[in-house]
């Protein structure tokens, strides 16, 4: 069983829709959760990070963590064609995520149709 | 405020040659991480370094790969005697013990 599972997609939705991206994990030691966005042939760009169960909102993005179910989500409201990219979830056993190698999901390829 | 810098952005090597990838962390960051992204695969952690110290190399292949982060200058990931399976995107990230920020990557192609 892989440590982090993420549906690779592609996930195609119309512009303006609410997008839901998800990851499940098996390692209960993970404490810190991140979402990165990666455009084709570019480096990952940090979108959101959180370490507690519940919701964290930043503009059009909401990160949700359910540690009891080992499940995290990223919601994108009012999706735009510029949101088309691969979205990577990442996790760390260390609070802060900076003193540990991150464990990534394979990424979900998102396409926003104009 | 410059981000994480990596060079070269693209590198072509023939089998058996050496590849040297460089990473300069963000200003104020003293922690560097290397990751590899194979085609159709996720990012895989390779090694975590601080200045002059390897903290965690649990993701590094046992042979041909090495990394350093000297007191002065960039961090270097070295791959000796490259094989076609080494073809991948190699990303460097840096942090100040907060969340990691990634560079643009070096795309290595082994012919």
Structure in a nutshell:
The complex is a heterodimer of chains A (114) and B (111). Chain A is 0% helix and 52% strand. Chain B is mostly beta strands.
Query: How would the global form of chain A be characterised?
Result: globular
Give the end-to-end Cα distance of chain A, rounded to a whole number of Å.
37 Å
Question: Helix proportion of residues of chain A, in percent?
Answer: under 10%
Q: Sheet bearing the most strands of chain A, described?
A: 6 strands, mixed
What are the main properties of this structure?
heterodimer, A: 114 residues, six-stranded mixed beta sheet, five-stranded antiparallel beta sheet, 0% helix, 52% strand, B: mainly beta, seven-stranded mixed beta sheet, 50% strand
Notes on the structure:
The complex is a heterodimer of chains A (114) and B (111). Chain A is an all-beta fold and 114 residues long. Chain A has no helices and eleven strands. Helix content of chain A is 0%, strand content 52%. In chain A, strands 2, 4, 5, 9, 10 and 11 form a six-stranded mixed sheet that branches. A five-stranded antiparallel sheet of chain A has the order 1-3-8-7-6, with no helix packed on it. Chain A starts with a strand and ends with a strand. Chain B is mostly beta strands. Chain B is globular, with a radius of gyration of 13 Å. The mean pLDDT of chain B is 93. In chain B, the strands form two sheets. In chain B, strands 2, 4, 5, 6, 9, 10 and 11 form a seven-stranded mixed sheet that branches. A four-stranded antiparallel sheet of chain B has the order 1-3-8-7, with no helix packed on it. Chains A and B meet through strand 5 and strand 10 of A and strand 4, strand 5, strand 9 and strand 10 of B.
């Amino acid at each position: 069983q892989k440590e982090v599972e993420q549906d690779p997609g592609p996930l195609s939705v119309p512009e303006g829709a609410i997008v839901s991206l998800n990851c499940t994990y098996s390692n209960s030691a993970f404490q810190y959760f991140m979402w990165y966005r990666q455009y084709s042939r570019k480096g990952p760009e940090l979108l959101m990070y959180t370490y507690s169960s519940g919701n964290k909102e930043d503009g059009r993005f909401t990160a949700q963590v359910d540690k009891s179910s080992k499940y995290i989500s990223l919601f994108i409201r009012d999706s735009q064609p510029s949101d088309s990219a691969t979205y990577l979830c990442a996790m760390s056993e260390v609070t802060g995520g900076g003193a540990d190698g991150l464990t990534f999901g394979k990424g979900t390829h998102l396409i926003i149709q104009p | 405020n410059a981000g994480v810098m990596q060079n070269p952005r693209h590198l072509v090597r023939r089998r058996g040659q050496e590849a040297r990838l460089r990473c300069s962390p963000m200003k104020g960051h003293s922690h560097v991480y290397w990751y590899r992204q194979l085609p159709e695969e996720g990012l895989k952690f390779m090694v975590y370094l601080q200045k002059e110290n390897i903290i965690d190399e649990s993701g590094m292949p046992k042979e041909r790969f090495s990394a350093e982060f000297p007191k002065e200058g960039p961090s270097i990931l070295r791959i000796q005697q490259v094989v076609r399976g080494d073809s991948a995107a190699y990303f460097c990230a840096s942090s100040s013990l907060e969340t990691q920020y990634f560079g643009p990557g070096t795309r290595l192609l082994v012919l």
